[in-house]
């Protein structure tokens, strides 16, 4: 003969936790975020409580407040990232020169490229734009940034590869050579001509060199 279980079931315990603590958690959240976000915070807090019910102490409110506080912090970090991306896109769009073509695919290419540029790290984006947008040679760009030319080459190579991955996807970035396609596409999408200098310091137009020789 089995002994009947003693104490509340997990479902009963959670129901009691919700009934007694949810209003206080919501009041805490409402002091820090808007009502819609506060409701999401409460839902997420009690979802965590359900998943970790065995870890909820006998005095649950401090534990729940910590979970709610962390949830709010995560939400704010996400909001800051979204705002930062919007600001960066607006900044890049503000300096983008208008193109003569009004085709939809040109607008789409520009939007894709701007988003790719905005997703780069600040130093990668600066390296790429100094060459693609401002038309500087790697040596000149390195001097602007106060780094060695070798360091700038590495930074530019990584920026190109990262941008190609963001814009075209990993499958189209399999070529290990530091191709300047992303740089040229960035210049075209921004309305600027492709950069004159090559990343290795060679002539900008090899075919022209062959003809002259």
UniProtKB/TrEMBL annotation:
PANTHER family: RNA POLYMERASE ECF-TYPE SIGMA FACTO, RNA POLYMERASE SIGMA FACTOR HI_1459-RELATED. GO terms for biological process: DNA-templated transcription initiation. Residues 165-213 are annotated as: Disordered. This is RNA polymerase sigma-70 factor (ECF subfamily). The lineage of its organism: Bacteria, Bacillati, Actinomycetota, Actinomycetes, Micrococcales. One of its GO terms (molecular function) is sigma factor activity. Keywords: DNA-binding, Sigma factor, Transcription, Transcription regulation. The keyword Electron transport does not apply. It comes from Flavimobilis soli.
């Amino acid at each position: 003969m089995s002994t009947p279980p003693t104490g509340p079931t997990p479902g009963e315990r959670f129901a009691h936790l919700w009934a007694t603590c949810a209003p206080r958690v919501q009041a805490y959240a409402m002091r820090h975020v808007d009502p819609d976000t506060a409701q999401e915070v409460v839902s997420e807090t009690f979802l965590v409580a359900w998943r970790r019910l065995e870890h909820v102490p006998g005095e649950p409110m401090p534990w729940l407040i910590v979970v709610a506080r962390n949830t709010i912090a995560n939400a704010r970090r996400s909001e800051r990232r979204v705002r930062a991306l919007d600001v960066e896109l607006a900044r890049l769009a503000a300096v983008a020169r208008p193109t003569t073509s009004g085709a939809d695919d040109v607008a789409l290419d520009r939007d894709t490229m701007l988003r790719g540029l905005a997703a780069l790290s600040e130093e990668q984006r600066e390296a790429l734009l100094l060459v693609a947008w401002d038309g500087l040679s790697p040596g000149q760009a390195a001097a602007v940034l106060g780094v060695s030319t070798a360091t700038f080459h590495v930074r530019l190579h990584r920026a190109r590869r990262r941008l190609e991955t963001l814009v075209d996807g990993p499958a189209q970035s399999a070529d290990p050579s530091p191709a300047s396609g992303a740089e040229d596409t960035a210049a075209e999408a921004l309305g600027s001509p492709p950069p004159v200098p090559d990343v290795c310091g060679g002539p900008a137009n090899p075919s022209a060199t062959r003809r002259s020789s």
